[in-house]
Amino acid sequence: MAADKGADSEDAHVEGDGLRWLDQAEKEAWTGVLSLAMLLPGRLESPLRREHGITLFEYLVLSHMSEAPQRRLRMGDLAYLAGGSPSRLSNVMKRFERRAWVERFPDPGNGRYILATLTEEGFSVVRRAAPTHLRAVRGMLLDRLSVADQKALTRIAEKLQIRPVDFL
Fold it and tell me: How many CB atoms are closer than 10 A to CB 118?
C-alpha cells in the first residue's frame, strides 16, 4: 500500500506505531519484484509443459542433477536448489523413478541421507528440454537486460540472501 504523502511533512507516511507505508518508488520496486516472483515462473514453465510435458520444478530438478558430480545429489540439497519442499521433491522423484529417469538409494557415507542419481534416460530428457528452457530464459529475461541489469539482479539476490548456495 502506498502512502499519500501530504504537503506538510516528508514523514507523512509514518504511522503513530512506527509503521512506514511504501512511498511511490518503494511500491514500484515491490510491484516489480512481486511480478517477477509470481508471473515469470509460469511463463518459463509454459514452453516446457507444451514441448516436453514437464513442469519448471521438474526441469530444475533434472537440470541440477545433470550438473552435479556423477549426476548425483542428496535429496535435501536437491530440494533446496530446485526451490521446493522435501515432500514435493519426493513426489516428483517417485514419478521420475517410474519413468526410469532417476534412482534413489541411501548415502553410503551417511545412511541418514538419500542420494538421487540421474539415469541416462533422465539425462536425455533434460538435454532435450534444455534448449527450450534456454530460449525462454533468454527471450523473457536475459536478452532484455543489459549486463549491468543482470549484475544488479545477481547483487540484489545475494544481498537478500535468496540466491541458492552452489553445492556443486
Answer: 26
What span, in angstroms and rounded, lies between the C-alpha atoms of 5 and 59?
Answer: 46
Among 86, 165, 72, 75, residue whose Cα is nearest residue 122: 72
- CB 82, CB 91: distance < 8 Å: no
**Residue 73, all three cell numbers:** 545429489
Residues linked to residue 104 through DSSP beta bridges, in sequence order: 116
How far apart (Å, rounded) are the C-alpha atoms in residues 36 and 152?
Answer: 14
pLDDT tens digit sequence for 108-133: 989 899 999 999 999 999 999 999 99
Pair type for strands 110-118 and 72-74? antiparallel
Provide the greatest CA pair distance for the chain: 68
Cβ within 8 Å of residue 58, ≥6 positions away: 48, 92, 96
The angle, 0 to 180 degrees and rounded to 10, between the axes of the packed helices 86-98 and 56-67 is 80
3-state secondary structure of 107: strand
Instruction: Give the full edge-to-edge strand order of the sheet including 72-74.
Output: 72-74, 110-118, 102-107
Inter-CA distances, 165 with 28, 83, 158, 168, Å: 28, 12, 10, 9
Question: What's the predicted TM-score (pTM) here?
Answer: 0.82
